[in-house]
Amino acid sequence: HLGYHLPADEVVSGGYCDDTMIISDDLDHLRELNAIACNFFQKHGLSINAEKTKVTGRNTDGSPLTSKLPWVGTNRCFTTIPPDCPIRYLGAFITLTLDWSHQIGKMNTHIMSALTGLKAGKLTLLQASLLLKYVTGPKLNIGMTHADIPSATLTEWDKSIAAALRSSAGLDFAHIHYSAVFTICNFPTTTSLYLAAQSTSILSLLTKPSPLRGHHQSHWGPAIAALSSCCREGAINNFDFNRTGIGRPHALNALQNLARHGLMLEPNPASRIDNPPKIFSSGPTHCAPPMCPVFDGVAIPVRDTYDLWGKNFDLLLAAGQKLVGPPD
User: Fold this and answer.
1) Model pTM?
2) Could you report the per-residue pLDDT of 259-289, keeping only the tens digit for each?
3) What gap in Å lies between CA 234 and CA 278, rounded to an integer?
4) Within the chain, how many helices (H) and strands (E) appear?
5) Could you give the CA distance from residue 299 to residue 278 in angstroms, rounded to a whole number?
């Protein structure tokens, strides 16, 4: 129990490929986790980039953490930074204070870089449209998924993109709404990208196999149920963010905007996501209906399972009896 404690769960570490992190709500426990990580690295011949590794946190009185955390067995100490200083982790610039301004600034740079090329005549209208759709859009995805971006910022981006495209087409004089420009160029507004990214991110938290899935379900479930109730009663605008207890108002606003278009996240009453897996039985068996449906005269051995064929499927056991035939 060395990690960071949630109401009913605990987070000790996380990561993907070579981006890893350890987390705890106690500095002494963090030092223990650091020693465990160091031991693991040494046993597997792995090294760590001490310059890129950062330490951040708060003391029990709320003041910024200033303690140093060394890489065990060396004289190197990781850099300790204030809670409001951004750290790039898994492609996103995050802070302990949940200040997303640095990440939003990076996203703004991606957009303005594409528009600068268009305004300077380096890109044709078609090239700019394809660049925004297939290059700039995907670059924004990590920020769209995790950052709290004000709707005013998204609208400003949309209007800037539309104005640059209109100008490139020689239509500065035309009073074409910015949403129509995106429709003509056949790619979504940044507002639409944000709504899609936020909703699919929440859906992933609720359904993706994870030790924290139960936490996310209990965290988001009441808010989603309240939003669904308001939608069914035709009172979607009466949905009160402040009563949900969720500290991500922009994500809730995204769900509310989707609900206005008839798109809702709803629990699936027929879901089998929490059912225990059905394991293929070991030992000799005989394929018989309904375990062997016949297609064009060929009996196909199947499993009664929720996970397709699954990692425990034994091809020889399933097909072998068809090769040797049933016993007399």
Assistant:
1) 0.76
2) 888 888 888 887 777 766 555 444 444 444 4
3) 42
4) 10, 11
5) 22
